[in-house]
């Protein structure tokens, strides 16, 4: 090898490496950077909504689902506008909500569609009950697993076919034969082929039908396969539409006699719309409307009940009476105390010693609602009372109180809201819906409906350290003026 050839042989790998380097430069320039993997512990979305219906909850006459909030792992977002394309994410099709009462799941609501009602998005769907739990499979009895003394030895049994001669008693006479083992459904069994029906030519015919022998069948009619598949209760079924029997329309004279309700007909005038089916929707705020909390979460979380158990049942009545007295004072229902008598009259009254009349009974509270919650494990009681006046001659007044017992057993009012029908646009009426865990931290928040005369919104309040603070409020939505009450 010459020196020139040797130099070329050394420089050739250098040139190839340079070409490869320049070839990889555009590819490296397109690399966006390090791709972060999605953590399995990433927070999941949790949506809170309010389910409103009229009639029976199992069979509502009309219903709707109003989104309130969506927790994205860090903050609470407005459920009515969060990721709206165009409907919000909380009202996407096939989203399932759990309907809860005091923290207990009482039903399910599946979203089938969404629409706007007076500028706000509402969800439409169907209420369905909770699925029934399957009964636990019965364990096999221990008596069915009894083996004989030689359970380790394989035993071959001959299957008894119809028409065979009964077995001889030779085995019983012989002392060396082992007793027949107990029947075991899981033990493999070998069967002897029956050749009694073989032909004279020496070729064996088809064996006798054996229920344990796999058999190949010809393709049968679809109706037979459907009936066989219907025996499995867990098999998904598709409901087929029933085909109507076609009528003979070969003659023109028979056309007027056709009575098909689904046949289109041309008529003069306006359409009556008998063939149109409208989904039952809830419009406005009817007086018989009911509300319940609805929660949708991708994770299955255990139920957290908000019931509070009193150590002394008499304490609940004591707290309720104290809150009712505070509510009457806020509504102006308590009569003012009588004016103090002059000193001369006091002496005269002492001489006469007339008995004082008993105090009048307390004024009744209309539409009273009293609830007691335990918003966290091991926490104290949180009391909520709301009521209104029933005097039709004067503007109605509304009051809502949130309180807790103090260290001395007295009622400590944390939040008081008082308004009337003339100031609902400034101070809306607070209507308690229920307690709900909005951010999945095992602590409940109080969900209120803030209803004005023309608008309403929903708000979450957190009770902590002797304070009741507003945690979140949704965007206000328009309501029917005649529905406000």
How does this model look, in words?
The protein is α+β, with helices and mostly antiparallel strands. Among the domains are: 46-127 and 291-296; 305-333 and 361-483, Lipocalin (Beta Barrel), CATH 2.40.128. The longest helix has 27 residues, at 3-29. The radius of gyration is 40 Å and the shape is elongated. The chain has a 7-stranded antiparallel beta sheet, with no helix packed on it. Strands 12, 13, 14, 15 and 16 form a 5-stranded antiparallel beta sheet that branches. A 4-stranded antiparallel beta sheet has the order 8-9-10-11, covered by helices on one side. The model is unreliable at 1-36, 140-148, 168-178, 197-205, 220-230, 234-244, 248-252 and 273-278 (pLDDT under 50). Strand 8 (366-373) and strand 9 form a beta hairpin. It contains 5 helices and 16 strands. Helix content is 14%, strand content 27%.
Features:
5 helices; five-stranded antiparallel beta sheet; 485 residues; disordered N terminus; alpha+beta; seven-stranded antiparallel beta sheet; Lipocalin; 16 strands
Radius of gyration: 40 Å
How many beta-strand runs?
A: 16
What is the CA-CA span between the terminal residues?
Answer: 107 Å
CATH architecture of the domain at 305-333 and 361-483: Beta Barrel
CATH topology of the domain at 305-333 and 361-483: Lipocalin
Main beta sheet, described?
7 strands, antiparallel
User: Topology as H/E string?
Assistant: HEEEEEEHHEHHEEEEEEEEE
Structural class: alpha+beta
Note the total helix count.
5
- The low-pLDDT segments are 1-36, 140-148, 168-178, 197-205, 220-230, 234-244, 248-252, 273-278
């Amino acid at each position: 090898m010459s020196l020139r050839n040797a130099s070329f042989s050394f420089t050739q790998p250098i040139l190839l490496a340079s070409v490869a380097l320049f070839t990889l430069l555009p590819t490296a320039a397109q690399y966006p950077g390090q791709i972060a993997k999605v953590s399995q512990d990433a927070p999941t979305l949790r949506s809170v909504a309010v389910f409103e219906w009229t009639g029976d909850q199992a069979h509502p006459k009309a219903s709707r689902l109003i989104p309130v909030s969506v927790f994205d792992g860090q903050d609470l977002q407005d459920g009515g506008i969060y990721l709206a394309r165009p409907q919000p994410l909380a009202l996407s099709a096939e989203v399932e909500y759990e309907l809860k009462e005091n923290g207990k799941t009482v039903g399910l609501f599946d979203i089938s569609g969404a629409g706007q009602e007076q500028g706000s998005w509402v969800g439409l769907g169907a209420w369905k009950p909770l699925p029934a739990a399957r009964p636990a499979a019965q364990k096999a009895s221990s008596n069915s697993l009894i083996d004989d003394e030689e359970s380790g030895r394989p035993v071959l049994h001959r299957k008894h076919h119809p028409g065979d001669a009964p077995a001889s008693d030779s085995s019983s006479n012989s002392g060396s034969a082992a007793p027949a083992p107990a029947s075991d459904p899981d033990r493999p069994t070998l069967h002897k082929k029956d050749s009694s029906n073989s032909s004279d030519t020496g070729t064996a015919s088809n064996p006798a039908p054996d229920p344990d022998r796999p058999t190949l069948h010809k393709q049968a009619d679809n109706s037979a396969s459907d009936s066989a598949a219907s025996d499995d209760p867990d098999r998904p079924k598709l409901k087929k539409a029933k085909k109507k029997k076609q009528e003979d329309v070969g003659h023109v004279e028979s056309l007027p006699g056709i009575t098909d309700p689904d046949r289109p007909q041309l008529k003069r005038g306006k359409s009556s719309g008998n063939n149109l089916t409208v989904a039952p929707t809830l419009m406005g705020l009817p007086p018989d409307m009911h509300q319940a909390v609805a929660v949708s979460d991708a994770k299955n979380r255990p139920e957290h009940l908000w019931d509070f158990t009193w150590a002394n049942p008499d304490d609940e009545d004591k707290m309720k009476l104290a809150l009712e007295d505070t509510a009457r004072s806020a509504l102006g229902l308590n009569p003012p105390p009588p004016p103090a008598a002059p000193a001369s009259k006091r002496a005269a009254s002492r001489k006469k010693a007339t008995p004082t009349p008993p105090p009048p009974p307390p004024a009744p509270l209309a539409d009273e609602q009293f609830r007691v919650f335990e918003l966290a494990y091991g926490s104290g009681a949180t009391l909520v009372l709301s009521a209104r006046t029933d005097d039709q001659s004067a503007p109605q007044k509304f009051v809502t109180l949130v309180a807790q017992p103090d260290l001395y057993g007295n009622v400590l009012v944390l939040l008081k809201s008082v308004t009337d029908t003339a100031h609902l646009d400034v101070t809306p009426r607070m209507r308690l819906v229920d307690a709900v865990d909005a951010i999945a931290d095992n602590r409940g928040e109080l969900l209120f409906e803030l209803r004005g005369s023309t608008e309403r919104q929903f708000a979450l309040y957190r009770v902590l350290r002797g304070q009741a603070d507003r945690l979140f409020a949704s965007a206000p939505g328009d309501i029917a003026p005649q529905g406000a009450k």
